[in-house]
Specification:
With about 220 residues, the protein is an alpha/beta fold. The chain has helices at about 30-40, 70-75, 95-105, 115-125, 140-150, 155-165, 180-195, 205-219, and strands spanning about 15-20, 40-45, 50, 65, 80-85, 90-95, 105-110, 130-135, 175-180. The protein binds guanosine-5'-diphosphate (GDP) and adenosine-5'-diphosphate.
Length: about 220
C-alpha cells in the first residue's frame, strides 16, 4: 500500500496508527489539529462520545456526538475498534473509517486515552506508535484548562484530580513529549511521525526498490 503524500519517496509502506494521549488540557487537541493541517497522508480518527458538545465543537468533526443507547448499539455490533469510559462518559473509535484509511495507505491519528491505547496495542502492536504529552507543570495545566474556557470550574476540578492518575500511564508509551512551547512540541511530534514512516519494517516496497537498484547497477 502506498502512502501518497508530499513527502512520499516512491517506496510502498504500511499505514500506521499514531496515538496521542495526555491528561486533559496538556495539548492533544491543539497538536492533533496542527498535525492534520501540516502532515499530508495523515487522517484524524473521529471518535464517538456520549459527552455533551462543548461550545465551538462541531458534530462529525470533533466527535460524533451520540446518546448512550446508540453508543451501546455500536459497541454490540462490533463497530468500535476500541472504547472506554472516561469522566463518566463513553468514548470509542469507529472501526470502518480507520480500516479504510489504513488500507488506502494513509496514516491515522488518534486522540484517545491510555485504555484505548492499550486496546489498539493488543490488536495491532506493530502498527501502533504512541506518544504521551505532558504539561510542563500542574499550574500550567490548570491555566490551560481555564483559558480553554469550555468547562465549568467543577468539571475543571474533576479533570485536574484525574490528571495524576492518567499520567501514571506514561511509561506504556513509545515517546514522551513535554508541551512547554507549542511550536517545539509540534516539531517533536512531527519528527516522531516522520521517523516512524521511514522504519524498515513498514516499508513493504523496499525489497522491490533495492532489487531494481541492483538491476540498474548490474546492467
Ligand atoms: N479510549 C478512548 N478515549 C478517547 C476517545 N476519544 C477521546 N478519548 C479520550 O477521552 C478523554 C476526554 O476527552 P475530551 O472529553 O474531549 O476532553 P479533553 O481531554 O479535554 O480532550 C481524553 O483523554 C481523550 O483522549 C476514544 O475514542 N477512545
Ligand atoms: N504549549 C502551550 N502553551 C500554552 N497554551 C497551550 C499550549 N498547548 C495548548 N495550549 C492551550 O491549552 C488549552 C488546552 O489544550 P488542548 O489542546 O485542548 O488540550 P487537550 O486536548 O489535551 O485537552 C487550549 O486552550 C490550548 O490552546
Amino acid at each position: 500500500m502506498a502512502a501518497h503524500d508530499g513527502s512520499f519517496d516512491g517506496v510502498e509502506r504500511r499505514g500506521l496508527m499514531f496515538v496521542l494521549s495526555s491528561p486533559s488540557g496538556a495539548g492533544k487537541t491543539t497538536l492533533s489539529r496542527l498535525l492534520i493541517e501540516r502532515m499530508p497522508g495523515l487522517r484524524m480518527s473521529v471518535s464517538a462520545t456520549t459527552r455533551p458538545m462543548r461550545p465551538g465543537e462541531v458534530d462529525g468533526r470533533d466527535y460524533h456526538f451520540v446518546d448512550r443507547a446508540r453508543f451501546e448499539d455500536m459497541a454490540k455490533r462490533n463497530e468500535l475498534l476500541e472504547w472506554a469510559t472516561v469522566f463518566d462518559n463513553r468514548y470509542g473509535t469507529p472501526r470502518a473509517p480507520v480500516e479504510a484509511a489504513l488500507s488506502a495507505g494513509q496514516d491515522v491519528l488518534f486522540d484517545i486515552d491510555w485504555q484505548g491505547t492499550q486496546q489498539l496495542r493488543e490488536k495491532a502492536r506493530q502498527d501502533v506508535v504512541s506518544v504521551f504529552i505532558l504539561p510542563p507543570s500542574a499550574a500550567d495545566l490548570e491555566k490551560r484548562l481555564h483559558t480553554r474556557a469550555q468547562d465549568s470550574d467543577e468539571v475543571i476540578r474533576g479533570r485536574m484530580s484525574r490528571a495524576s492518575h492518567e499520567m501514571s500511564h506514561w511509561a506504556e508509551y513509545d515517546y514522551i513529549v513535554i508541551n512547554r512551547n507549542i511550536d517545539d512540541a509540534f516539531a517533536e511530534v512531527q519528527s516522531i511521525l516522520k521517523a516512524e514512516r521511514l522504519k524498515r519494517e513498514r516499508r513493504t516496497g523496499l525489497t522491490t526498490f533495492v532489487r531494481e537498484l541492483q538491476r540498474q547497477l548490474e546492467s
